[in-house]
Design goal:
8 strands, about 220 residues, elongated, single chain, mainly beta, Porin
Length: about 220
C-alpha cells in the first residue's frame, strides 16, 4: 500500500472517532464571534495534463498542508493555504508498430509544486460553504517518461516546465464533524505549463495545462 493511502486511512480513522463524539455542527455559524480558524488539510489529487494527447484524470497524487480561514462578514470568509501538491498525468494507448506489432504506449508525468491558494467563500449554511479563487504554484521537481515501440529519451533541458503555475480554483466544503470538513475542489492552469517549443513533438500540442479534481479532509481548530 502506498504511503499516500496509509496517510488517508489514518486520517479517516481519527476523523471517525471525532465524528462519533461531535456535538457542534455549526462551525461557521454567522452568530459566532470567532474571526480566524486555522488547521490542516490532507487528501488526494486526481489530475491530468490537458494537451498531452492522453486524457483522463488517471494520475493520483498527494496534497496536504496548512490552511487559515478569516471571517470578513457573517457569511463571507477568505482562506489562504500553503500546500505540497503532486500533479501530472498517466497515459496508456494501444498502437500498432511495424517493429513490434500491437503494443501499449505508456506515459508517466509527475509534476510537484508548493502551492498557495487564496479563496473567497460564501457560507450557505453553517455546514456548507462554497469558494472561488486562484492559486500560485512554484515548481519543485518533475519526472517524465514514455514507453513506446522504440527507445525514446526525454531530455529535461529541452522539455522542461515553467517554474510558475497560476490556477483558477473552485471548491465546496461540507462539515462532517466538530472541526472536520470534506472538501471537493476543481482547478486548472490559466496559462500553459510549458513553452510551446518544450512540448514533446509526439504530443502534437501547442499548450498544456494542469487540470485536476481534489478530495481532501480538513480539520480546523475552534
Amino acid at each position: 500500500m502506498s504511503s499516500i493511502w496509509k496517510i488517508l486511512i489514518t486520517v479517516l480513522c481519527i476523523m471517525s472517532v471525532n465524528v462519533a463524539n461531535a456535538q457542534n455542527s455549526d462551525f461557521f455559524s454567522p452568530e459566532k464571534e470567532q474571526v480566524f480558524f486555522g488547521g490542516l488539510t490532507v487528501g488526494a489529487n486526481f489530475s491530468t495534463v490537458d494537451g498531452d494527447s492522453y486524457g483522463g484524470y488517471k494520475k493520483v497524487g498527494f496534497v496536504g498542508g496548512g490552511v487559515v480561514y478569516a471571517r470578513v462578514l457573517p457569511k463571507l470568509l477568505t482562506s489562504v493555504e500553503l500546500l505540497y501538491t503532486q500533479k501530472g498525468s498517466r497515459g496508456v494507448v494501444q498502437k500498432t508498430s511495424l517493429y513490434t506489432g500491437d503494443f501499449f504506449e505508456r506515459y508517466w508525468l509527475d509534476v510537484n509544486y508548493v502551492e498557495v491558494p487564496v479563496l473567497i467563500h460564501y457560507v450557505f449554511t453553517p455546514r456548507l460553504h462554497v469558494g472561488v479563487g486562484a492559486s500560485y504554484s512554484q515548481l519543485l521537481n518533475y519526472r517524465e517518461e514514455v514507453y513506446t515501440d522504440q527507445p525514446l529519451i526525454i531530455d529535461a533541458d529541452v522539455t522542461g516546465f515553467k517554474k510558475d503555475d497560476i490556477n483558477f480554483v473552485i471548491q465546496g466544503g461540507w462539515q462532517i464533524g466538530t472541526g472536520w470538513f470534506l472538501m471537493a475542489r476543481y482547478q486548472r492552469s490559466t496559462n500553459s505549463i510549458r513553452e510551446p517549443a518544450n512540448i514533446p513533438l509526439w504530443q502534437n500540442s501547442i499548450a498544456q495545462f494542469n487540470d485536476l479534481f481534489s478530495l481532501r479532509l480538513t480539520y480546523l481548530i475552534k
